[in-house]
Amino acid sequence: MFDTRPGKNLDGEWTLHVDEPTICHFPKWCDFYENACDGKSVSLIMDDGSTKKIQGLVDHADDLIDEKSEHELNAYFGDMLKNLMAELKQDGTLARLPLRKDAFMIIEEFDGRYFWPEPRSVKTKGRILA
After folding, report:
1. What is the spatial distance between Cα 122 and Cα 104, in angstroms, rounded to a whole number?
2. What angle do the packed helices 67-90 and 27-37 form, to 10 degrees?
3. What are 44-77's pLDDT values in tens digits?
4. CA distances (Å), 13 to each of 7, 8, 25, 43, in order?
5. End-to-end CA distance of the chain
6. How many Å separate Cα 127 from the centre of its chain?
7. Total-model pTM
8. By three-state DSSP, how is residue 113 classified?
9. Which of 26, 68, 87, 108 is the most exposed place for a label (fewest CB within 10 A)?
C-alpha cells in the first residue's frame, strides 16, 4: 500500500486508510500464504531464484500456525520486498517516480510482524529508505 496521508507517520494508522487506489495486489502471494497457514505443503521461489519448500506449519491439535512459523513466512515476503526495493533504488527506477521530497520507504506486515527498517533507525526527511 502507498500511504499518501498528509502528515503520515510510523503509527500504524495507515491500516485505517486501506483503499483500492493505494493498494498493490499480489494474489499469488495471498494464495501461497493461505495454503501455508492451512498446513498445506507449498514451494516459495526466493528472490535469488532458489526454491524453499515449506510444510507442516500447522499444529493439527488446534489447526493453527504457530507464531514462529508465521513470523518466518512474513520475513520471506518482507525480505523479498526489501531486496526488490534496494534493487529498484540501485538501478535508478525509484528515482524516476514522481515522489515528494520527503518520501520514504518502509515495509510493514499488516499486523506488525515484519518491519523494515527498524523503526528507531528510520530517518525520513528527504530520503527513500531502501
Report:
1. 9
2. 160
3. 888 888 998 888 777 666 667 777 888 888 888 8
4. 11, 9, 20, 33
5. 16
6. 19
7. 0.69
8. coil
9. 68
DSSP secondary structure letters along 11-70? SSGGGGG--GGG----HHHHHHHHHHHTT--EEEE-TTS-EEEE---EETTTTEE-HHHH
Q: How far apart are CA 73 and CA 87, in angstroms?
A: 22
The three grid cell numbers given for residue 109, joined into one nine-digit string: 506486515
Which three cell numbers mark 102?
Answer: 520527503
Residues 102, 122 contacting (CB under 8 angstroms) = no
Give CA–CA dist 54/69, Å, rounded: 10
44: which strand partners?
Answer: 52
Query: Alpha-carbon torsion 6, 20, 113, 48, what sign?
Result: negative
Residue for cell digits 483503499? 19
- pLDDT tens digits, one per residue of 77-112: 888 888 888 898 899 998 888 877 777 777 877 777
